[in-house]
Amino acid sequence: MKLLLHTCCAPCLIYPKKVLEERDFEVVSFFYNPNIHPYTEYKKRLDSLKEYAQISKVKLYTTPDYDIESFFGAVGGKIEEPDRCIACWRLRLGKSAKKARELGIDVFTTTLLVSPYQNKKLIKKAGEQAAEEEGVKFYYQDFSDGFREAYNEARNSGLYLQKYCGCLFSERARYLKKYRKINEKI
Hints:
Rossmann fold, globular, 56% helix, 7 helices, 5-stranded parallel beta sheet
């Protein structure tokens, strides 16, 4: 059975792909991540994913353009977690459910479920809502037990490893944490 896997990056594809294929799913990857900022970061993640998809023989679909306007439109004034993240997940999983339906694939899931830093309960809810709206099924599995394994494989394979979730807000938070640590030492 085919399964559309919303994929945010190459490292996050590694473990879910392995597990899903062991469960006899034919994995089809879909990259839709208008949250990733700046464009150079978006391009690095997409290029790395294209490279890994080719090596691992995964069919990969992408969107034709960098759709950051949709991300900012979806999050609107929601700049705090979890509201901003929920809006982002709804956007990305909604587009993924729609793509699954368009391709005639009955079930989809997301690599967001591999990160130990994401709220799985809220991602599941967003996925189920998107599935219901598009008439497909959302496959839920917490893949986070394979996060470290996938990270190590990605590093050993020379794949690009990002340092933040992707959005401008998460990049800012990354630097603010670093800045706070420096100030705490002074």
